[in-house]
Amino acid sequence: MFGAACLAYRRDLLLAFRHWGQVAQPLVFFVIVATLFPLALGPQLAELREIAGGTLWVAALLASLLGVELLFRADHADGTLEQMLLSGQPLAILVLAKGLAHWTVCGLPLVLLAPLVAAGLGAPPAANCTLMLSLALGTGILSALGAIGSALTLGLRRGSLLLGLLVLPLAMPSLIFGARAIDLAIHGDNARGPLLLLSAMLVLSVTLAPPAVAAALRISAE
Amino acid sequence: MNWTWFHKLASPPHAYRIAAGLLPWFAWPAGALILFGLYGGLVLAPADYQQGDAFRIVYVHAPSAWLSMMVYATMAVAAGIGLVWRIKLAHAVAAASAPVGASFTFLALATGAIWGKPMWGTWWVWDARLTSELILLFLYAGIMALRASIDDRDRADRAAAVLALVGVVNLPIIHYSVYWWNTLHQPATLTKIGKPSMAADMLWPLLAMLLGFTLFYGAILLVRLRAEILRRERDAAWLTTGLAR
Question: Domains of chain A: which residue ranges?
Answer without folding.
Answer: 2-220
